[in-house]
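Recall that a protein's primary structure is simply its ordered list of amino acids. Everything else, from secondary elements to tertiary packing, is in principle encoded there. The following example makes that idea concrete.
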Amino acid sequence: MDASGKFVLPLSGIPYLAKDVFCEKGVPTTACSNLLRDKDYLPPFDSTTTKRLKAAGAISFGKANTDEFTMGASTETSCFGVTHNPWDTDRVAGGSSGGSAAAVSADECLFALGTDTGGSIRQPASFCSCTGIKVSYGRTSRFGVMSMASSLDTIGTLAKTVEDAALILQVIAGQDPLDGTTSPAPVSDYSAALLKPVKGMKVGLPKEYFIEGMNPEVEKAVREAAKVYESLGATIVDVSMPHTKYAIATYYVIVPSEVSSNMSRYDGIRYGHTVSHPENLLDYYERVRSEGFGPEVKRRIMIGTYALSAGYYDAYYRKAQKVRTLVKQDFEEAFENVDVLLSPVAPTPAFKIGAHTGDPLQMYLEDVFTCPINLSGMCGLAIPCGFSSENLPIGMQLIGPQFREDLLFQFGHAFQKETDWHGRKPGL
């Protein structure tokens, strides 16, 4: 605030929550895992994202629930327990950024930080009726944020509107000397993009994202959203993304492989849980990791270690990386003909708590429409586009070329000016 009493910082006094993988100096950070919770880990530094928000005047209210080390699609793997959906407390809020989405939807904060490795911002945004931006890989810094899969992790935000998301990304985006994966590409003026019309532009509908078995109310809501763009003067174009069917399998080879590498640092010596009176070093390692990690983290470590082992590396990991390139090429070819793509975020609205806990594969399929974007490095925006007959939120996904978040904000804001789905509140 200056001498005249005016706020001079872009986010002065705005309260937010940080997903519990963002390091904030002196604030307990656990990744919702007993491995760190038992140690009362206090980071000695701030993540680049929280440091930039602090410099812009935003105020952190604390941490939001997440799946353990972000591994999950429902927050059911969190050591603190599941986050309940504000629209129906018998249902999940999504994951892994479910705590962030639920907090924004329930008016506990004005925005929240999340991470998106395969849909972990967009899916909870869809389940809780808020706006979630998954940025292009390299658009925001990952420094000070606990890693799951380093070649896929992105830092974004969940907010109430596209306009809010644009204002926040303007603050946190950009190159960071502490993160060598951040891009030197200039950051667009996202607020200016909000004012641009979509008339004369092209929206692609990828046929592979409207699959048999998806909830018909989800498909109807997204197709109705396409009609809104037509009414605004945009052209709807059918496109094909032929390698989409391989995306889930590819994703769940690459992610566990990178998980097995990233989780190796939590050995009880450098970081994490400790045990008393081990028989030897091997016994110490085994007990630390067995007692500290939950079932989903252990599952991914084992799958990833197997995929990277001698004799299997070429058959699994190397082949998955080749398919990843083909998935990326699908997007690049599509964007030669259209400006953005439009698809569902998830095949169903929020599911009941416990519905998938005994079936990891079914939980993995929650990422079917979101993980291809992470594999390609492109950007995606989830915004509300309707409600089911059970009054459950339905979200749509806008997908843009790499570093064209401005396009997503342009299309997302145009939609929110014409509709009021984003303005509805849960009856808490």
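The chain is about 35% helix and 15% strand. The longest helix spans residues 314-334.
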